[in-house]
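It would be a great kindness if you could assist me with a short task in structural biology. The full record is reproduced below for your convenience:
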Amino acid sequence: MLFLPPRFQKAIAFFYIKNNTLFGGLSHPGYKMELNYNKDLVKGLLKEIIKIDYECRDIFKDIKQVEFFVSKYHTPAPVIVTDTDPKYSELATGDFILDIENSELLEIFKRIKENIEQNRA
């Protein structure tokens, strides 16, 4: 499958041969029309492989047709998780006066002030 262009490599989930036909299971319906349009490319690549690799000659020499279908049996592409959480430096100084009579609010603002001071370090 590495002989195909990269856009086709990710489209094809698997291949198999049956009755002198090479079947390609596709991972997404959007690729079917494009690959059906490029069947001649795949057939040409098979002919080139037969000329180059003697082991593949026995496998691909009798192939007369190439067919593609959308398969529900494919391994999904690996999900790449990147850390996109931006890290910003703390711009606040925590330099404010706590002139609050409500003790609950005073405690909340004290914690906020402590968090700001810790984040500045």
Q: What stands out?
A: DSSP finds five helices and three strands in the chain. The helical segments are 6-9, 30-37, 39-52, 54-60, 103-120.
